[in-house]
Write a structure and sequence with these properties.
By secondary structure, the chain is α/β, with parallel strands linked by helices. The chain is about 40% helix and about 15% strand. Strands 3-2-1-4-5-6-7 form a seven-stranded parallel beta sheet, sandwiched between helices. A six-stranded parallel beta sheet has the order 10-9-8-11-12-13, sandwiched between helices. The protein is elongated.
């Protein structure tokens, strides 16, 4: 069998906001570029790094009313089709293939917009665009079984064509030996976006509860606090307990995981949650909202609380702070659990999708 060719849209490589999606494809391509001829199709030079063996094609689709530019664009598409007739299209963020006959793989990260915000008028176009990509795909790659279940609930016809490819954690290095909880600072870590369903307010409300451990600090990684968040921190009188660390490099983030005792993830919905594995990899105990996907990803290596009841987060942390043996138990289970996830496994699942489609296309 000839070597498969895969064209990928470069959406996540062209911005600095879809870091999780960029991470998936960077890790997978870096591990499989000796088996797959990859071409990253971008409308502008990438802002995120591209694995060295991946070819890049700048291809900006003009508006149809610019007749001359659109005609040049169509000629270039026909040339690519002639040069790579069996090329698979992998939509990293729900973009259509370059030509109608292409076999298509589409990655699905969650169905949060469809299940939680389906009536939001500003999301209708995005939801419709995503639905078109899902129904067009020959293979769908979901990042968790929970995501696959939600996908099948909304698109029952995808049950036979969707697979699960869990994500990995090895992009962060760690200090050896891993420090036990008792040798870490009395602090917990919050990482990433804090908007809407991410439920950051739950943490701030928990800090104001009488059960919040008095010496436990909260360190926040991510964008600067906006005026509303500053007002909430002031309202809950949490200024002395909350420290904003800003955006960190992978090396700096790894250091924070390795010195923090707990990692907090109060999110009400996720497709996977890579930071959970990042924390476990560093021996940092995840304290998570009790939702299905977190049980799937973190297993017994995390403590769980009710994300709709901030007092349960405070009580969970108080319980952990008062019980060294319980800390060690979760710490040990976290290290055990994370060993079952790797980017190698993600790459193998993605590779199998490409090989199956390539084989089918060759034989048709």
């Amino acid at each position: 069998m000839t070597k498969p060719t895969v064209f990928l849209d470069g959406c996540a490589f062209e911005n600095k906001f879809q870091i999780g999606i960029w991470r998936i494809f960077h890790e997978v391509m870096a591990r499989t570029s000796h088996l797959i001829d990859y071409y990253l199709i971008t409308a502008r030079p990438p802002l995120q790094s591209v694995p060295k063996d991946v070819a890049q094609i700048l291809l900006n689709r003009p508006r149809r009313r610019n007749v001359l530019a659109y005609s040049r664009y169509r000629r270039r598409i026909r040339l690519l089709q002639k040069e790579h007739p069996l090329a698979i299209w992998h939509s990293t963020f729900y973009t259509p293939p370059l030509w109608n006959e292409q076999r298509v793989v589409t990655s699905v990260y969650d169905m949060i917009a469809e299940l939680r915000f389906h009536s939001a008028p500003n999301l209708k176009a995005q939801i419709d665009f995503k639905a078109a990509a899902i129904t067009r795909a020959n293979r769908l790659v979901c990042i968790s079984h929970d995501c696959k279940t939600d996908l099948a609930r909304l698109f029952p016809e995808t049950e036979a064509t969707s697979v699960v490819a869990h994500l990995g954690h090895e992009h962060l290095t760690r200090r050896e030996p891993v420090l036990p909880p008792s040798d870490r600072s009395s602090s917990c870590l919050y990482v990433g976006s804090r908007t809407q369903y991410k439920n950051f307010r739950c943490v701030l409300e928990a800090i104001a509860q009488p059960d919040w451990p008095p010496n436990l600090k909260l360190h926040v990684v991510g964008s600067a606090f906006d005026s509303h968040e500053k007002a909430l921190i002031s309202y809950y009188q949490a200024e002395a307990r909350v420290q904003h660390l800003g955006r960190l490099s992978d090396f700096e983030l790894s250091g924070q995981y390795q010195q923090s005792r707990y990692f907090l993830f109060p999110s009400l919905a996720e497709g996977f949650g890579i930071p959970t594995l990042e924390a476990q990899h560093a021996g940092c105990i995840p304290v998570l909202n009790d939702i299905r996907v977190f049980r799937e990803v973190a297993g017994a290596g995390a403590a769980y609380f009710d994300g709709n009841a901030p007092s349960t987060l405070a009580r969970t942390l108080m319980m952990l702070e008062g019980d060294r043996q319980l800390q060690l138990q979760y710490h040990s289970e976290a290290l055990k659990n994370v060993s079952g996830f790797s980017w190698e496994q993600t790459a193998e699942a993605m590779l199998q999708c490409y090989l199956d489609l390539h084989r089918d296309h060759q034989s048709s």
